[in-house]
């Protein structure tokens, strides 16, 4: 046990964010249950306001104040079908799905720091950008956009993101000179 810490469950637990100890095996029939084995700093996020993940990944993971969202496609959470229309419509649905997951995690699209966009054809770049731009305020998150050969369910766009958790209280530093405004890292 050298260098290992014992499992200590998180003080926050709900039906959508769950921690389990290393000896607690996941029942395969609970495909939508969130599970993280042996690491109390990692919590899985699950919401029915976004399409359910496949049994071998989570919609998102919260770890050390950050939310890491799996890729989202333009699937309606209610019908489990791809939305009709073009790449713009599916971009909007993918970002709405990510928004729902981030909200469940205690964050939002306002807190996104990095997005990765996957397109099946770069000719869709402008149409995707027109919709993508409406979802984010300044400063816009960092972003990578690449074309790939194929995406799940033959869709034309998939988006994943990383966001920080919401900060309940922000300190007003506007009265300080700019040289004294060092970015704050940590808990308030």
Shape: globular
Radius of gyration: 19 Å
What count of helical segments does DSSP give? 2
Would you list the SSEs in sequence order as H and E?
A: EEEHEHEE
Q: What oligomeric state do the depicted chains represent?
A: single chain
Largest sheet: 6 strands, mixed
Please report the distance between the alpha carbons of the first and last residues.
33 Å
Poorly predicted ranges: 1-36, 169-173, 184-188
Helical content, roughly?
10-25%
Number of E-type strands: 6
Report the sheet-strand fraction. 15-25%
Walk across the major sheet and give the strand order.
1-2-3-6-4-5
Structural class: alpha+beta
Structural overview:
The structure is a single chain. 16% of the residues lie in helices and 20% in strands. The protein is built from 2 helices and 6 strands. It has a 6-stranded mixed sheet with strand order 1-2-3-6-4-5, covered by helices on one side. Strand 2 (60-63) and strand 3 (66-73) form a beta hairpin. Helix 1 packs parallel to helix 2. The relative contact order is 0.15. Mean pLDDT is 79; it is low at 1-36, 169-173 and 184-188.
Q: What's this, in brief?
A:
By secondary structure, the chain is an alpha+beta fold. The chain is built from 2 helices and 6 strands, in the order E-E-E-H-E-H-E-E.
What layout of secondary structure does this protein have?
Elements lengths: L41 E4 L14 E4 L2 E8 L13 H19 L6 E8 L5 H11 L6 E6 L9 E8 L24
Parallel strand pairs: 4-5
Antiparallel strand pairs: 1-2, 2-3, 3-6, 4-6
Helix pairs in contact: 1-2
């Amino acid at each position: 046990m050298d260098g290992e810490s014992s499992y200590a469950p998180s003080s926050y637990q709900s039906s959508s964010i769950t921690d389990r100890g290393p000896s607690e095996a996941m029942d395969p029939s609970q495909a939508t249950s969130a599970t993280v084995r042996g690491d109390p700093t990692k919590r899985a996020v699950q919401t029915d306001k976004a399409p359910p993940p496949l049994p071998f990944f989570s919609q998102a993971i919260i770890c050390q104040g950050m939310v890491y969202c799996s890729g989202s496609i333009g699937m309606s959470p209610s019908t489990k079908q791809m939305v009709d229309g073009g790449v713009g419509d599916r971009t909007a649905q993918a970002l709405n799905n990510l928004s729902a997951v981030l909200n469940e995690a205690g964050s939002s699209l306002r807190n996104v720091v990095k997005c990765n966009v996957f397109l099946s054809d770069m000719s869709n770049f402008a149409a995707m950008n027109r919709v993508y731009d409406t979802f984010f305020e300044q400063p816009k998150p960092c972003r990578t956009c690449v074309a790939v050969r194929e995406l799940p369910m033959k869709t034309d766009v998939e988006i994943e993101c990383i966001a920080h958790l919401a900060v309940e209280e922000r300190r007003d530093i506007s009265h300080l000179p700019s040289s004294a405004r060092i970015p704050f890292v940590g808990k308030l």
